[in-house]
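JOB MANIFEST
job_type = single_chain_structure
chain_count = 1
residues = 359
[input]
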Amino acid sequence: MAVTTGMIGRGFYNRNSAPQWAAINYVLPWIVEAASGMDFADPPTTVGLADFGCSEGGNSIAVMTTLVAACREHTTRPIQTIHSDLPTNDFSELFKRLRPEGRSVFGEAVQSAAVGGSMYDQLLPPRSVHFATTFNAIGFLGARPLDRLPGYILPNGPSRLRGVGAVAEAEHAAFEQQAARDLEAFLTARSAELVPGGKLLVEVFGAGAEHRTCDGIYDVLNDALLAHVSDGTISRNVYETFYQPVYFRTLDELTAPVTAPQAQCAGLFRMERVESYEVPVPFVEDYQGSGDVDVYANAFTNFLRAFTEPVLRLHLDHDPDPSTVVTSIYDHIKGLLRANPERYPFHYVAHAMLLTRIG
């Protein structure tokens, strides 16, 4: 079974990914600073900039706008931006945004391309990329290490606040190992594509000392699914085989392939900068200011739906009317958030590391 088909398309993800942008925006200064120290004199003559996990392109293009401008301060060479995601991703919105009115959104001497494939594989020619980025996508697993997760819908388990459900230690270990293999595969693939001295910026949602990004958002999805198990809308088997193929790493887990003793990728990259941080969530801040619970519940639900619905649909492919079931589940989520918003607090914790290709 596929892990996911990507994010919801048709502009839905672009409209409902402001929290992700807040986490990305925090590290944009890293890009500008890193580009200022790069040497663009050696081959290849085209400066390659690649973003892995571009989805519909809204955030990806915004990142590339900053990166192109930063590189243009130091080179007049042609620039190519490459936007990559799964083959099942909806690239149509990306294509429209890349060339509005028939011209590159990035200006002259900049060409763009899209590449479909798994970010855990090498997707670009050797030594063709000067700066690569990925935002959040590395949190999605490359494979499902277990057929089912009977106690909860996420390998990291429920929040301490709710404590509804459980993930066994052995189950968690299977996902931890899969996430480690994925990260090593991603770094190895990017090391082949990057020029010596090339930069790689990795940002991903994660687990911090006090909060985890998964808390709240997956608790409410889990509660809604269990309600549909109770009323017979979905079977217990569907619930147990449906889990989000997402792993929320600690900062140490993110950096381990490069910095841990006998790290697999230590000879490929030099760690330049690393940080764990929490960013304000726009719809949470709006709710704290306005107190409008209806607007809050709608924004929260759409944000969650943008990346969880495609996985859910994969597990409802044999249902005679999956769209009705999906709509009912997210309507239930909206109702839970409207009735008890304090039960599902959402904190956006992110980790980021900036690497330089060595050798």
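[summary]
The two ends are 38 Å apart (CA to CA).
DSSP finds eleven helices and seven strands in the chain.
exit_status = 0
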